[in-house]
Amino acid sequence: MCGAQTGGPDASTIKPGETTIQGQVTRDGEPVTGYVRLLDSTGEFTAEVPTSATGQFRFYAAEGTWTLRALVPGGTADRTVVAQKGGLAEVAIAV
To answer: Which residues cross the membrane (predicted)?
Structure first.
């Protein structure tokens, strides 16, 4: 994801027809590196990805309600997102 645009990875690289959740993790407006976990509607762990050097992340997931949990040095933050089938959900996570 190096070189991705501010606000999320470059949307032109999204797989057509895939349900995509992507965004950026920041602290005080600056990108933060760490990990983002994808939890299902029951809170069950589904996946985890490292953020890029610019705090960006991307998941390909099923449609539904998900929780994103940012895990970065010195803090965590959760955000709920509803992913639509074949759609793109952009999420900003401030820690």
So the answer is: none
* Residue environment code for 14-48, b if the CB has 16+ CB neighbours within 10 A, otherwise e: eeeeebbbbbbbbbeeeebebebbbbeeeeeeeee
Q: Which CA distances in Å does 82 have to 40, 60, 73?
A: 11, 13, 27
Per-residue pLDDT of 5-62, as tens digits, reads: 444 456 566 676 789 999 999 999 999 999 999 999 999 999 999 999 999 999 999 9
CA dist 29 and 40 (Å) reads 27
CATH no. of 17-94? 2.60.40.10
Q: Are 93 and 25 in contact (CB under 8 A)?
A: yes
CB atoms under 10 Å from CB of 5, counted, come to: 12
